[in-house]
Amino acid sequence: MHTVEALDSLILFRQKPDSLLRRLMSSEEAIRVAAQGELVALAVENGWQGDLWRCCIARELVSSENPFSLAWERRSGGQDTLKALALADMKLFFELVSAPPEGGAWPLLRNFRHESRRTADRASFMAFSGELAAAGSPEGLLDRLTAFYQTQGVGLLGMGQVFRARRTGDGAELVPVEDRPPVRLADLVGYRQQKDLLIRNTEAFLRGKGSNNVLLYGDAGTGKSTSIQALVNEYADQGLRLIELYKEQYDLIPDILRQVKGRNYRFLLFLDDLSFEENETSYKYLKAVMEGGAEAPPENVRICATSNRRHLVREVWSDRGDVEHNGDIHRSDTVEEKLSLASRFGLQIFYPAPTFEEYQQIVSALSEKAGMDLPPEQLRAAAATWQVRSGSRSGRTARQFVDQLEH
């Protein structure tokens, strides 16, 4: 078994002083035992099974954002000095895989089993972890690693699919969203034309063709946010990623763009329920980011927003007066500036409230999916009564009705 000092010979895949792998290899028993507890917690959180020693090594390899891994993620790696340096590092990792630790809790940790919901993004990691034992040589290990970079990516952005932003002292930190609804576009009943427009734009974006920022607007509860959330479930395996931002986080966008620029993924900045009141001015900042700023967004980023109103900025009658003596002299210019925010979205898709018959179709589809066997006439009458009492008719209303029936 190698000592922890062996990790100091790594060049590209350097280990931080407090890395989990380094602590698992520590000469101090207390540090090793604490690290084993952390390894178990990671396994439970991420759905790891089997040999946790290999999982730990696999985690270090797939999460290391270095010049070599980023080049292969962009599919621009080749037979160069970077690959020679990476191969030198793989010799140590191959030896670590071939000579796992023994004694103590390791017999249990190398045959770890627990009930888990293994998601698609975790399955790819587990498959790579299993391949480590079959690599056969440092060269074989490197071949498997570069293949993973090319198909799955590297680091946080490679393993995650949906992210939220968290403000830090240095800017923005992207945090993966682990538990999210497994919704698909087919789950949204109706709105075929709207979904087709969204699919065509997204697929063009993924191919690097002409695509637009998207605004989904219309009545509440009609499936606008669901459509965006479903997109990443449909296209994550093709490199689509979603970053959800709140209104008070728009100043973080430049730092987020810096982090994702040049990565081999396509990012949707998701602005849910986008609207601004009369006295808010952050819409000007958003306009500059979308178009006309000093630096245009990277080509691998599009903004996707939902709103209950098309013009996004609430307009009041006082905006209509062309000349005023207090405030802006030419108020019509202010109106145009406000309304021009929507024009920054090249694709605007309207989600209207369903008709009564469409609402009943949604109820029927949801109840069938839920396995209910109510007579159609009884279901129809109850759904009609529910939408009258709720004061609205939408997909959300239909979902709430079906959920109530299941109680």
Structure characterization notes:
Pfam families: DUF815. InterPro entries: AAA+_ATPase (IPR003593), DUF815 (IPR008533), P-loop_NTPase (IPR027417). Keywords: ATP-binding, Nucleotide-binding. One of its GO terms (molecular function) is ATP binding. This protein has 407 residues and is α/β, with parallel strands linked by helices. The protein has three domains: 156 residues, no CATH class; 190 residues, Rossmann fold (3-Layer(aba) Sandwich), CATH 3.40.50; 50 residues. It is 48% helix and 10% strand. Strand 1 and strand 2 form a beta hairpin. Helix 3 packs across helix 7. The radius of gyration is 26 Å and the shape is globular. About 2% of the residues have low confidence.
Q: Could you provide a short overview of the structure?
A:
By secondary structure, the protein is of the alpha/beta class. It is 48% helix and 10% strand.
